[in-house]
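Per your request, structure below.
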C-alpha cells in the first residue's frame, strides 16, 4: 500500500443478504477500517461482522514510512532510496540511521552514531558466561534467541518503552551487541575462546574480526569480503511487514522491553520459510551433485516432494531486487576466494526454474536467500550461521518498526479474534464415568 489516492468521500457499499440492510464503509489508502465491519449486525445482540485472514494475506496492520515494496514490479526502497543504491553506495551504519531516523545522516550525525555504537560494543560478562554453558551443538540461532532475551535482563533501564530517549539507548545497544552475540555463538561452537572487539574497524569488519580472529594472529579481513558482508547486512536490513517484523510488533505491543521482542522476532526469522531459508538453500545445493541432476531435482519440487528453497515470496511476484544484487556480489566474492561449483548448480537451477511453466505461472523467482548462503559459505562459514547473519542485518529493521510503533499514540496491544470451531457448553464428566 502506498500514499492515499482516495477522496474523503470514497466509500464501499455493502448489502447484507441476511437482513437486506445496506452499509457504507469509508475507503482510505485503498483499505477499509476493519472495525467498521462490526456495525454490520443481524440484530442488536450480534457481536458484528469480522474479517477472516489467517496468514494476514490481505490485512494492513499499521501505517509505516520505513520501507516500500512494489512486489509486482520488484521494487524495494528504504525511506525512498532504491535498494540497489543503498547496497552499492551506503555503509551499514548509514543505512541504520536512515531506517531509524528517516534521512541519510550528515557527517557529524554519522560520527556521533558510530561513536555511540562503538562505546556500546562490549557485552556484559554474564552473556559470555551464558554462552559457555550452551551445548556446542546447539543451533546458533537458538543461542542468539536466548542471548537476546537474557541481554535485556542485564540492564535496569529497559522498560521505559514510551520514552524516545530511552528507546534510542536500547536501539544503540541492540545494534552494537547483536553482532557480538552472533560472534560469541560462533566462537563457542568452534572452540575459539572469547570475543575480542576492535572498534577501530568498521561495523562489518569488526563483525568478521570478532568471529574469525585467532589468538596471537592478526589476520586482515579482505576488503572485498568486508564490502560483501556490509552489503549483505544492508540488503537484509528491512523488509516492511515480514513474519519477524510482525512478530516484533505483535510482541512489543504488550509494551515488553525490546530485547524480549527482538528474541521473538529472531525466533520467527529462524523458520525455513523465512530467514532459515538461506541455510536450507545451501543444504539443498549440497544434495544436488552436478548440473546434470538439476532437471530431476526440479521435478521433485514440482510434484510436491519438496520446495525449491530460496524461491518464491509472499509479496514479490517478480524478481526479488535483493537477489539480483546478491547474484552480482557472489561473483565478486568468488573472484577473491576462487570458484565454487555450487554457484554453477545454483545458476542452472535458477535458469531452469525461471523457464519452467510451474514456476513462471506461479510467479516464483529467486528471493534474497537463494545466493546469500553461497557467499557466506565462500567466506568460510557453515550453513547454520547463515540465519544468524540475516538476524544481525535485520535487527535495525525490527528496531525501526518498534520505535515507529511506540511513538504512535494510536498503537494498541495486538489481539486478533478467532472463529471458534469447538464444542458447545458440556456437562463435566467424573473420572470414573469417562469412556
Ligand atoms: N517451491 C515450489 N513451489 C512453491 C514454492 C517453492 N519455493 N513457493 C511457492 N510454491 C507454490 C506453492 O506450492 C503454491 O502452489 P499451488 O498454487 O499449486 O498450491 C503456490 O506456489 C503459492 O505458494 P504459497 O505457499 O501459497 O505462497 P506463500 O506466499 O504462502 O509463501 C513462501 C511464500 C516464501 C513461504 C514460499 O514461496 C516458500 O515456501 N518459499 C521457499 C522458502 C523460502 O525461500 N523462503 C524465503 C522467503 S524470502 C526471505 C524472507 O524475507 O524471509
Amino acid at each position: 500500500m502506498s500514499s492515499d489516492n482516495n477522496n474523503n468521500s470514497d466509500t464501499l457499499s455493502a448489502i447484507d443478504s441476511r437482513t437486506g440492510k445496506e452499509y457504507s464503509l469509508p475507503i482510505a489508502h485503498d483499505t477499509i477500517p476493519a472495525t467498521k465491519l462490526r456495525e454490520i449486525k443481524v440484530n442488536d445482540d450480534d457481536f458484528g461482522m469480522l474479517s477472516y485472514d489467517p496468514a494476514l494475506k490481505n490485512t494492513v496492520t499499521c501505517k509505516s514510512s520505513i520501507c516500500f515494496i512494489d512486489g509486482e514490479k520488484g521494487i524495494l526502497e528504504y525511506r525512498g532510496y532504491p535498494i540497489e543504491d543503498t547496497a552499492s553506495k551506503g555503509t551499514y551504519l548509514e543505512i541504520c540511521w536512515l531506517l531509524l531516523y528517516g534521512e541519510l545522516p550528515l557527517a557529524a550525525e554519522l560520527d556521533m552514531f558510530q561513536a555511540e555504537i562503538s562505546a556500546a560494543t562490549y557485552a556484559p560478562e554474564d552473556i559470555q558466561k551464558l554462552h559457555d554453558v550452551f551445548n556446542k551443538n546447539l543451533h546458533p540461532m537458538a543461542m542468539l534467541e536466548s542471548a537476546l532475551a537474557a541481554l535485556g535482563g542485564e540492564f535496569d533501564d529497559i522498560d521505559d518503552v514510551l520514552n524516545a530517549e530511552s528507546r534510542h539507548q536500547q536501539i544503540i545497544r541492540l545494534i552494537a551487541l547483536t553482532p557480538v552475540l552472533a560472534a560469541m555463538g560462533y566462537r563457542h561452537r568452534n572452540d575459539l575462546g572469547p570475543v575480542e572487539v576492535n572498534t577501530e574497524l568498521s561495523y562489518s569488519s569488526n563483525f568478521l574480526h570478532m568471529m574469525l580472529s585467532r589468538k596471537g594472529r592478526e589476520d586482515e579481513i579482505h576488503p572485498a569480503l568486508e564490502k560483501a558482508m556490509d552489503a549483505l547486512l544492508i540488503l537484509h536490513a528491512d523488509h516492511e511487514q515480514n513474519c519477524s517484523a510482525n512478530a516484533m510488533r505483535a510482541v512489543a505491543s504488550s509494551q515488553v522491553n525490546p530485547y524480549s521482542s527482538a528474541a521473538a522476532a529472531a525466533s520467527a526469522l529462524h523458520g525455513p520459510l523465512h530467514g532459515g531459508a538461506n541455510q536450507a538453500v545451501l543444504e539443498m545445493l549440497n544434495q544436488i551433485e552436478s548440473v546434470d541432476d538439476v532437471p530431476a531435482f526440479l521435478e521433485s519440487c514440482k510434484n510436491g516432494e519438496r520446495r525449491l528453497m530460496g524461491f518464491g515470496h509472499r509479496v514479490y511476484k517478480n524478481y526479488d531486487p535483493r537477489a539480483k544484487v546478491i547474484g552480482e556480489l557472489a561473483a565478486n566474492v568468488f573472484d577473491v576466494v576462487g570458484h565454487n561449483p555450487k554457484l554453477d548448480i545454483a545458476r542452472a537451477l535458477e535458469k531452469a526454474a525461471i523457464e519452467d511453466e510451474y514456476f513462471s505461472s506461479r510467479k516464483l523467482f529467486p528471493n534474497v536467500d537463494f545466493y546469500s548462503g553461497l557467499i557466506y559459505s565462500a567466506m568460510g562459514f557453515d550453513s547454520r550461521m547463515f540465519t544468524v547473519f540475516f538476524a544481525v542485518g535485520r535487527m535495525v529493521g525490527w528496531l525501526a518498526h518498534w520505535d515507529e510503533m511506540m511513538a504512535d499514540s494510536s498503537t494498541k496491544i495486538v489481539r486478533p479474534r478467532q472463529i471458534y470451531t469447538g464444542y458447545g457448553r458440556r456437562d463435566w464428566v467424573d473420572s470414573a464415568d469417562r469412556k
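The chain has a mean pLDDT of 95.

Regards,
D.
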